[in-house]
Amino acid sequence: MNKLLEVTDVRKIFGGSVRAVDGVSFSLAERETLALVGESGCGKSTVSRLILRLTDPTEGTIRFEGRDITHMSQGALKDIRREIQFVFQDPFSSLDPRMTAGEIVTEPLAIHGKVRNKAERRSTAEQLLQAVGLSAKHVESWPRQFSGGQRQRLGIIRAFALGPRLIVADEPVSALDVSVRSQVINILQDMQEEKGTAYLFISHDMATVKHMADRVAVMYLGKIVELAPKASFFAGPQHPYAESLLSAVPASHPNKRRKRILLAGDPPSPIRIPGGCRFHTRCPIAQDICKSQEPSLQLVGDNHLAACHFAKAWPIASRIGELQPATTTLAIS
Q: Which compartments does it reside in (predicted)?
């Protein structure tokens, strides 16, 4: 498939010392869903803002449809932003309370001159609302009159209004009740199938990732430590941190339950990133080499990359299981 998005060795340093994103590289193909996962503070939301150019990278290159947008002017970015849209985590704060639902979902069209008059804008709004299971009569409703799931539907269809080729979805279902998450996920998948849009899907919910993703990228402390096709990743992660993330996912059957891996301590500060492998301070299988040499992403399987000195040496789950368990539960909220 053609590469739609290419991110190459991108870094973002805040205040001269906080390495929020520290050399991230990946690509995204047309119609593909790449899930970016990790603990809070790992840098995944910063990556999304760099791609959208809501913040400027310190180093590296971002290409969209082959065009370098890394340092593109705000004026030139207006055309790019028709093709890259965003779905926010909080469906309430992302909607203007002073605008009706009809105004919200057609605002991108109005900004880019795609609707000519008030009648056309209303008609388009009704069509958009119906596309995500809302009623045409909701055109005049205010955000406060909708449930959380309905508000997120507004956010989704607003993102799709311009027919973008890429949508960055930052925790799009984490603020929703479990009962409506599946509805919103189904809408995202249906819209992708109909429109052919690619997703960068940012999440800490591994069950949702398993349902949505084609590939999975795991971030830890500003870096991608594992990148793999979904089936390969869920069948056998090759980085201890990725294994710990998966161990927290509830099993569909008692016989398939993974051994829960509890990591000691909290992630180090991005101001004081440890030498060697940045995960070694919490890793239950760390050796001397991990403290002195930083592993690079290496091919460990079919399109499966991992940054671990001992990837594929022997099953990570069994290595961890033989060791004394740590005492602090991994937090991925």
A: Cell inner membrane
